[in-house]
Design brief:
Elements (H helix, E strand, L loop, with lengths): L1 E6 L5 E8 L1 H4 L8 H12 L4 E4 L1 H8 L8 E3 L3 H7 L3 E4 L5 E6 L2 E7 L4 E4 L7 H7 L7 E4 L4 E4 L3 H7 L8 H7 L3 H12 L5 H10 L8 H12 L4 H10 L3 H4 L1 H9 L1 H20 L5 H9 L9 H6 L4 H15 L7 H13 L4 E4 L4 E4 L5
Parallel strand pairs: 4-7
Antiparallel strand pairs: 1-2, 2-10, 3-4, 3-9, 5-6, 6-7, 9-10, 11-12
Helix pairs in contact: 8-11, 11-14, 13-14, 14-15, 15-18, 17-18
């Protein structure tokens, strides 16, 4: 184990970070995307520092295969863009660079400063950047050239102890960005790490901070949950910390009022997680089906509707509208919600066929 030092105001050496060597962190280069390593190597060759950062490093230490490899550097977005022709700068306030290799996109960010707190956009140093990271298990930097993990915040120890610990002080972390509460629950669910009692209590007390968060940002977080393969654990954790009511208020209220519905809803999320693992490339509509299928039976007496010959078009329109309201503030693509509604209705014998020009709907033939 190595130590990275700085000097204090009196010129005395002060420990800044612990550096874990290859034999201590057990990360194999074989588990890292070759193109991600190329991006880092190219930045180094042009005189900049660059590291893997965040969730990828956490997952590599845990032994999971990362879905994404995010990179951080001291190069500015404009410099990164000049180095990589296959890149584009995104974002207006928080500018990042996407380096593109075919279907793969690597997000490259510049070290940020703490001059404006943990959500400012000023460029800074690695020493500052780590202080903006939300939780210690996400605040690790990996150098694939030297095969070293740089740890300023005891993140490796926290991962090994199985704990989600905030880096930013509790009196600021959720005020500056309320979505961090959802991330804490998500990290606990996906890594098996526990949230300390003090952190859970703070989340419960701060849950109302999610109220003004934009529907688009909440939709983004819900999409991550639905696609995570851990939706049951995340939603259960969000219910336990009073967060889910801000993500899915209608579902939360129904679960609190009807235990049978709650059991069915959570059971369907388990089915969704199994489906996600076996069908990782499935369209969103297939997954929304699991979110909606326990709600639709409450809309009407479906047997009576069929027996009385209610027009399929009318049933579809009413069901779609009610499902649309049920999942608010989530706002998925309309065609995906339509797919999920059609699939559910087909189970009640209401068959909806999609044509290029218009939607044709028919009820099953009378027996």
């Amino acid at each position: 184990m190595l130590i990275r030092y700085a000097t204090d105001s009196r010129g005395r050496p002060v420990q800044k970070a612990v550096i874990y060597t290859k034999n201590e962190h057990s990360i194999s280069l074989d588990t890292i995307d070759d193109d991600a390593i190329y991006v880092i190597r190219r930045l180094r060759e042009t005189g900049f520092d660059a590291y893997l950062v965040g969730g990828a490093v956490r997952d590599l230490i845990i032994g999971k295969k990362p879905k994404d490899f995010d990179i951080v550097t001291d190069a500015t977005p404009s410099r990164i863009k000049k180095i990589f022709r296959n890149s584009r700068i995104i974002g207006k306030r928080f500018r990042l660079v996407h380096v593109i290799f075919g279907q793969k996109i690597f997000e490259v960010s510049t070290f940020r400063s703490i001059v404006d707190g943990s959500v400012g956009n000023a460029f800074g140093t690695m020493d500052e950047d780590v202080q903006r990271r939300d939780f210690s298990l996400n605040a690790l930097y990996y150098d694939p050239i030297r095969e070293q993990v740089i740890d300023y915040v005891n993140g490796v120890k926290d991962i090994r102890k199985g704990i989600v610990r905030p880096v930013i002080p509790l009196d600021r972390i959720f005020v500056e960005d309320p979505v961090r509460m959802l991330r804490a629950v998500k990290y606990g669910a996906t890594t098996g790490c526990r949230l300390p009692w003090s952190l859970k209590r703070k989340i419960r007390k701060s849950s109302n901070l999610l109220s003004p968060v934009s529907p688009s940002r909440l939709t983004e977080e819900l999409m991550k949950i639905i696609n995570s393969g851990h939706s049951y654990e995340i939603v259960s954790g969000a219910m336990d910390t009073d967060l889910y009511v801000y993500l899915q208020p209608a579902a939360t209220n129904m679960m609190l009022e009807d235990r049978k519905f709650a059991r069915a809803y959570l059971s369907s999320l388990k089915e969704l997680d199994t489906f996600d693992k076996t069908h990782p490339d499935a369209r969103l509509g297939e997954k929304l089906y699991f979110v909606l299928k326990d709600f639709v039976p409450h809309l009407t007496d479906w047997k009576k509707e069929i027996e009385e010959g209610t027009a399929a078009a009318d049933l579809y329109k009413r069901t779609w509208a009610r499902c649309r309201n049920f999942i608010l503030p989530m706002n998925p693509q309309r065609t995906e919600l339509e797919f999920a509604v059609r699939k559910i209705l087909s189970e009640y014998g209401v068959h909806v066929k999609q044509s290029r020009k218009k939607v044709r709907m028919r009820l099953p033939p009378e027996e």
